[in-house]
Design a protein that fits this description.
Length: about 280
Amino acid sequence: MPGLPFTFKNPADVFAALDGDLGDHIRADLLAKGIYAFRRGFDNGFHQLTTSTKPIRTVDDLVGMKIRTPVQKMTVDFFESLGAKPMTFTLNRLYEVLKDHTVDAQTDPLQIIVLLKLNEVQTYLSLTNHWWSGFTLVANAQAWKALPPDIQAVIERHAAAAALAQRQDVERLDAGAVEWLRGKGMIVRATGFRVDSALSSALESASLRRPRSWVTIIPLPRSHRLRPHPGARRPGVRKGCRRGVRSMTAWMSGGSAFHACAFATSVKPDHQWFVRLR
């Protein structure tokens, strides 16, 4: 789920999903791969955009902009689809590449912007909340099963307590971050980027250009319903998709929707379909 654009509105939405049925679905998939995932994950916060050249008011402001992104291909694809020029650098090089203008922008949560003092090398902070990021606490499934049940219970209890405390720490950091950054001279803009119709159009255009690499789909049980976008359609044949590839409208809890080509050969009536960009 980290790095999946425009899926959640706030941390409460995130953890209602990931601590609940959606998380159960993901944890079951991980267990099938030999990875035991603890129920409570850690928070890293929603990503915002900082820039040195201009604020981000609409997706058009990203066209041609050199932006540092995390190294995952999904994040690179996302910014490429919006016309930006993403460049991948590890976090330990972030301050350096912003200072020497190798890139002009970057994406990170508020706490990271504060902790790395990016206000020293960036001028504008645009509050976009374009994706959530976090961490899953995991263990080797075989080693976990080998532990006595009472030891498992102790570890589970302390892992859950640590995760909940860490989430509160992030919440406190984020609560004061905007004013702290503004006090350091950053120009802060709360933008409508999240629900801008241009974003949906850009994503739709990108998905039709690159049906092979853009999306996969995850069926969600009826017990976890994402909020339908008004007028959203079920998967069906759509002009522009490769033959044999079905299309769908993604509806996200944030209220935006876009069409995509996806490898779906059947539709289960008791499931919604959730898009995962990759």
